[in-house]
């Protein structure tokens, strides 16, 4: 049974956009453009791509990386679709009907979950899900950064947490679920945030974040990690 959610009027940051690593950005970008209901734009000079929707927060950057996927996604997407028939070439990771969702794999093997729905909006992203060793710690960290409503249900190893109405988040929720395996490699899915007025990177460090890379001649943002090492990028406010 879920307790009453914790509510915060504001946090330290606003959600900016999503990022997905790809070996072939054009192929993976086209797949997620169809899957999420977003428009694809490719960059021939940089080998990357971007998906755009009705608002800036719906943007998804598809970033070309050399390393292939080697482990289960630590962060994955939940999407809405009218049926699994929309994914004829996506391998099934879980059997249809076993859960309320069906887990499929994208063209590079990245897991994502499909929720069948008769009423599918144009923008199809439902949730972003984060695997955690300690969901309470990670969820409370992001609640402090994004505000919104923080809820949880279950107990012990089955306890799950979720963050609804985080600042700028354009989908239903960010979910934090328990898994036994530790994080071992860089996440292939992450999100970016914008600092609120008057907030500095040091304020995020004080809340438990770690600086992985400061701005330099190649990047204008700060690469950080949450308390369990999940990477995210921090930008100065718009």
What does this protein look like?
The protein is mainly beta. The protein has one domain (6-235): 2,3-Dihydroxybiphenyl 1,2-Dioxygenase, domain 1. 13% of the residues lie in helices and 38% in strands. The chain is built from three helices and 16 strands. It has helices at residues 25-36, 135-146, 201-206, and strands at residues 6-8, 13-22, 39-43, 48-52, 60-64, 75-81, 102-105, 111-116, 125-132, 148-153, 160-164, 173-178, 189-195, 210-213, 222-225, 231-235. The strands form two sheets. An eight-stranded mixed beta sheet has the order 1-10-11-12-9-6-8-7, with helices on one face. Strands 3-4-5-2-13-16-15-14 form an eight-stranded mixed beta sheet. The mean pLDDT is 94.
Provide a quick synopsis of the model.
The protein has three helices and 16 strands. By secondary structure, the chain is mainly beta. The N and C termini lie far apart (about 40 Å).
Write the layout of secondary structure elements.
Elements lengths: L5 E3 L4 E10 L2 H12 L2 E5 L4 E5 L7 E5 L10 E7 L20 E4 L5 E6 L8 E8 L2 H12 L1 E6 L6 E5 L8 E6 L10 E7 L5 H6 L3 E4 L8 E4 L5 E5 L3
Parallel strand pairs: 2-5, 6-8, 9-12, 13-16
Antiparallel strand pairs: 1-10, 2-13, 3-4, 4-5, 6-9, 7-8, 10-11, 11-12, 14-15, 15-16
Q: Write out the CATH superfamily name.
A: 2,3-Dihydroxybiphenyl 1,2-Dioxygenase, domain 1
Bulk shape: globular
Q: Rg from C-alpha positions? A: 17 Å
Query: Remind me, CATH topology?
Result: 2,3-Dihydroxybiphenyl 1,2-Dioxygenase, domain 1
Q: Write down the overall mean pLDDT.
A: 94
End-to-end gap: 40 Å
Query: So what's the oligomer here?
Result: single chain
Strand element count: 16
Give the count of helical stretches: 3
- Give the total of domains: 1
- The CATH class label is Alpha Beta
Please give the order of strands in the largest beta sheet: 1-10-11-12-9-6-8-7
Helix content: 10-25%
Percent of residues in β-strands: 35-45%
Largest sheet: 8 strands, mixed
Order of helices and strands: EEHEEEEEEEHEEEEHEEE
CATH architecture: Roll
Going by helix content, strand content and strand pairing, the class is: mainly beta
Could you name the ranges where pLDDT drops below 50 across 5 or more consecutive residues?
none
